[in-house]
Each structure stands twice: as C-alpha cells, then as structure tokens.
Amino acid sequence: MSTAATAQRSAILPGRGGIGGALSDALWRKPGLLLFLMLTPPLLWLGVIYLGSLFALLIQSFFSIDEFSGMVVREFTFKTYGELLRPSNLDIIVRTVTMAGLVTIASAIIAFPIAYYAARYAKGRWKAVFYLGVMLPLWSSYLVKVYAWKLILAKEGILTWVLEKLHLNFLVDGWLSLPVVGGNSLSVSPTGTFLVFVYVWLPFMILPMQAALERVPGNLLEASADLGASPGQTFRNVLLPLALPGVIAGSIFTFSLTLGDYIIPQIIGTSHLFIGMAVYAHQGTAGNIPLAAAFTVVPVVIMGIYLWLAKRAGAFNAL
Amino acid sequence: MPYAVSFQQVSRHFGSVRAVDAVDLEIEPGEFFAMLGPSGSGKTTCLRLIAGFEQPTAGHIEIFGETAEGVPPYRRNVNTVFQDYALFPHLNVADNVAYGQMIRGVGKAERLRDADAALEMVKLPGYGERKPGQLSGGQRQRVALARALVNKPKVLLLDEPLGALDLKLREQMQEELKVLQKALGITFVFVTHDQGEALSMADRIAVFNEGRIMQTGTPEEIYRRPKTRFVADFVGSSNVLPPELTRQLGGPAEWASLRPEDIRLGTEAGHQAQVVGLSFLGSATRVTLDVGGEKINVLLPSGMPVPEQGESVRFSWTDEALHLMGTEA
C-alpha cells in the first residue's frame, strides 16, 4: 500500500492554488518582501508619529513666549533654554535627576538578588510564581497603587501604626526630622516619593536583569571559582560585567520613567516640582509651550549622555 | 608521599540517583589518569568532586594528603579544563589566561608576561588580544588549557576536553597533552567516554559504570585482562562470550572475552561459522560471524582475503587470546 502511495506522488507537489498559495510562494521566493510588509507599519508609526512629534517638540523649544500677550513667538531663539537655567527651574531639574538616580540605584540593589534567584535557582513552578509575583503589581492601576501608598505612609497610616506597636516609631520620627529628606510625615516627604517610585518601577528593573543573568552560563561562575575567585570576586569580575547590559536596560527604564513621571510626586511628597509636573503646568495652565518643550528635552539629553557614558564604560561589550 | 587524589568510599547522591556510589580511588602524583565510562556513569561527578563543585554525600576525599570535603573550589590548588572551555566572553585571551593570577593579586605586567608564556606553551603565541568568540574550537581548547596550567595546579582536571574537536585535531591534541603532561610533571585527571583516547593517553585508567569503578589498571591490563563483561565490551568492543558458548568453543563454562583482532579466519582446524555481516573500516574489515545464534566479530587487517557474505568459514585463535572472567562477571 505504501509503495502505491509513493508511486502516485510526484517529486514536485502542485501549488496550493488560490491567493493564499500564490502569496506563500511569492513570499518564500522573496523573504525581503515579507520583512518589508511586517516592518513598514511599525516603522511608519515610530518614524512619523513618534520621531515626528519629538522633532516638533524640539522645534517648539527653540521658540519663545511673548511675556505680555502670552503668545508663542515663532522665531528661532535660545531664550527659552536661558529660562530653563534660571535657579528655580534648574532646581527642578537637579531634584528630578537626583531622585531618578537614587531610585535607579535602589531598584538595582533590590532587584539583583530577586533576578539572580529567578535566573539561577527558580525552576518550573517557582519560575511561574516569580513572573507572576513581579508582574502582578503591574496589573492593577497605577493610581490605585499610588493612593494605597499614600494611606500606608500617611501620619495615621498603617506603617506608623505597625511601628508604634513595635515601639520603633522613633526611627521614622528621627528620619523625618532630618533636613532635605524629611517632612511632616512620610507621605509628604521626599523619602515617601522615593519609596513609591522604587516600588512602582521595580519590575522594570527586575525583568531585564533576570533576562541578562539567565544568559550567563553557569560554568563561567564555576570556572571563576576554579581559578581561585571567591564568590565576591566572581560577582565583580564575571557576573556583574556579563549582566551589565541587563542592568543598564533596567536602569534606562527606572531612570527615564522617574524623570518623566508627574503623578507620584504630585500625590506623595512635598510641593516642590519635578520635571514632569513642570511640563504639565507649563503646557497646561501657564500655556508656555516652549518652556514645557525645553523641559521635555532635558530627560532626552540626560538619557543620551547616560547611554554614551555606559557605552564608554564598556557596559555593552558583553552583548 | 601521599596520593595526589584519594577517594575513600565516596558517594554522591542526587535524590534517589546514585551518581557516585561508594567509590575508592587512588591517583599517584605525576600520573596521567583517565576516568573512562559511558555518559551517566559518574566519571564527571567524580571530577567535580575533586574540583569542589560537588560535595560528597558520604566518604572521604584527600588531595595530596589534605582533607577536601567542605573546602570550596576557590581554595583548592586544582584547576579544570571544562568540556565547553568556559572562557570568559568579555575578556580577551590574555586576560582569560591571566584571570587566576589577577584574582591572586599578581601585578598586571607580571601576569600578562606569564599569560604570554602560557599561550606560547600551547602554541598560540600572539593571540592575547583576541576575544574568545574569534577563536576556533581547537584554539579555545588551548586557551582553556593555558588558563588552567598558568596557575601551576597540583592536579589538572580535564572534562572531555577533546570531545568537540574533529578527529585530526583530536589526535594531534592527544599527543600534545601527553607531551605537556610529561614535561610539566603535573597530575592530570582526564574524563572521557572514548576508550581509544583513554588507552592511548593514560598511564592508568579507571572504568566507570553506574556510579561505580569496574576496574582500575594500566591500558594494557584493561584491554588484555578485563575483569568484567562490561569492561571487555566497553573497552575496545571485545567479543563477550557467555559461559555456554565458551564451553562449546572448548573452554571452561565461564564468561570470556575474545578480541576481534585475535581471531583467524579460514584455518584448517577450528569452529564452523557463517558470515552474516561485513563492514569495511579502512585499515581493517569487520566480519560478523554467526556461531550457534551468537554474534562474534572478527577484525581482518586490510590485505587479508575477505570471505563472502553468507559463506561458511572456519575460525580459530591462539590459546592466550581467550581471556576468562569467571562465572559471575
């Protein structure tokens, strides 16, 4: 029977027929066409909508506003950037960048052990638990989480209550009495803003770190130990350099998300402005689009400098 | 002088799997020692026990007379050449080789000089600036060797280091490794599943199966006088004769091993058999005989007359060729 079946089939099968068949054959013969068809829509989206609006923004930042009429003067000038460097605005930039830097460092320190455990030890079910645990907070609304934190950190909040029971509230009181980081309660202090930022952006640090650590072969760590390196030396000389692209990727997320956020510092923290809040205020109520645009350019420039420094430091050599 | 490595009743269990099961082992200083066995026989786990990547479930391990249990790998003066080389991809070849000395705090100029010398020794002079990714498999293997040897270990462990190389390169490396080992006088412990490699390189061989050592001895002993069916079959694919067949062929009722190259065909006297298989191997032809339902392989050196498929032939052997292994082998 099988010989009969073989005899009936010719060496070359007939086409499948129809538009589908013709299309499959055409795309198989010209793989470039498929790539073109797949990439065109997203590239148009990125190129025209995203880069276009970014470019429009950049142009806006070189316009200025007429102080009497409040109208945008469409003439090329550095006046708006000059305004950006006024002490009150510079203050906003320094505050935001410092916060973003601290949030990134703290996220990296907290994320590393979690990502390391997930990459090296978690298997099967525990890996699923890990992904669920990291992603679950992302499923609920960002606003709900931020308001929940407001209740946790408030003066009559859960944290104060727990610490009172443990007779440890002197720790928080002591911290809050410090200048710069302190305040009336955690929910109206920069410390509170910092805690919530770290909480909200942590998954964006853990996931790329975990992906990078997963790609470090286990036998490289064994080889390092074999050549006499203690676990600490192996971490510094092998694990960290190889995981660095993931750390950088995660830090790009946490850093840029903190730079651009305007909701968290509005709900939790002092009344001092962050870049996002300044952009929001200038393009909205104040109607100063050029200054808002100039403020928006700041994170772009900072991220550019950050990536350039990371590349120079060899962070992407392991890629 | 203590043994370079000694195992006393060492076991390593993974759950219910006995990867290494009550193994006794003694390796002499300066010896080229091969651990031979099929995959999953426990030879690699034994190597990892010496390196310190695994800790024994039971038993006692000594390296040059010093207790090794509970000592982490980085405190053992033992270095490993890994199966897939495990070169650090972010470091260039020179920094890879200098890694051990860098860890020990040797100055940059000195350790790079030593790395150059080590690369010279493995015949890769001037390769220091390249990244491991730019090297071929054979070159990576040499870098891994240099990286281990530059630390002057008391014992060098090699985990199937030639497994990924093609035949010609493998034979060349076997020769070089042997020469290097004799020149340096370092104890080499070599894990392989290739019996030819073990026979040609090692001073002594331990044959592993199912977590246990079946036999330890010189290549000659292992090849000529296997103690068990497993060793006879695994080392050099000998004909293993069950007791009944041995008796039929004129021996005592014991398990026996009969080397394919020791059998003559077409002799006047001898036993009758039918040719059921022929395969041309290049330097020899393997003839498979059917002797009362059992298969016996014969190796005919090239140039000898080869019988036809299905032909009836007589075969015989000299008395010393039949190696008896007892009734319980």
Would you summarize the structure shown here?
With 319 residues, chain A is an all-alpha fold. Chain A has helices at 2-8, 18-29, 31-61, 79-84, 87-120, 125-139, 142-153, 158-165, 169-176, 190-214, 218-226, 231-260, 264-267, 275-283, 289-312; strands at 64-65, 72-73.
What would you note in describing this structure?
The complex is a heterodimer of chains A (319) and B (329). Chain A has helices at residues 2-8, 18-29, 31-61, 79-84, 87-120, 125-139, 142-153, 158-165, 169-176, 190-214, 218-226, 231-260, 264-267, 275-283, 289-312, and strands spanning 64-65, 72-73. Chain A has 319 residues and is an all-alpha fold. Chain A has a single domain (86-312), classed as MetI-like (MetI-like fold). Chain A is globular. The model of chain A has no long low-confidence stretch (mean pLDDT 89). Chain B folds into two domains: 5-232, P-loop containing nucleotide triphosphate hydrolases (Rossmann fold, 3-Layer(aba) Sandwich); 241-324, Nucleic acid-binding proteins (OB fold (Dihydrolipoamide Acetyltransferase, E2P), Beta Barrel), CATH 2.40.50.140. Helix content of chain B is 27%, strand content 32%. Chain B has ten helices and 18 strands. Chain B has a six-stranded mixed β-sheet, sandwiched between helices. A five-stranded antiparallel β-sheet of chain B has the order 13-17-14-15-16, with no helix packed on it. In chain B, a hairpin with a 3-residue loop joins strand 14 (271-280) and strand 15. Chain B is globular. The mean pLDDT of chain B is 91. Chains A and B meet through helix 11 and helix 12 of A and strand 6 and helix 3 of B.
Average predicted confidence as pLDDT of chain A: 89
Residue runs with pLDDT of under 50 for 5 or more positions of chain B: none
> Looking at the chains present, what oligomeric state does this protein adopt?
heterodimer
Give the structural class of chain A: mainly alpha
Q: Give the fraction of residues assigned to helices of chain A.
A: over 70%
| Strand residues, percent of chain B | 25-35%
Q: So, CATH architecture of chain A?
A: Orthogonal Bundle
What is the succession of H and E elements of chain B?
A: EEEHEEEHHHHEHEHEEHHEHEEEEEEE
Beta fraction of chain A: under 5%
- Give the count of structural domains of chain B: 2
Major sheet characteristics of chain B: 6 strands, mixed
CATH class of chain A: Mainly Alpha
> What's the gyration radius of chain A in Å?
27 Å
- Order of SSEs of chain A, N→C? HHHEEHHHHHHHHHHHH
Ends apart, CA distance between termini of chain A: 55 Å
Distance between the amino and carboxyl termini of chain B: 35 Å
Tally of helical runs of chain A: 15
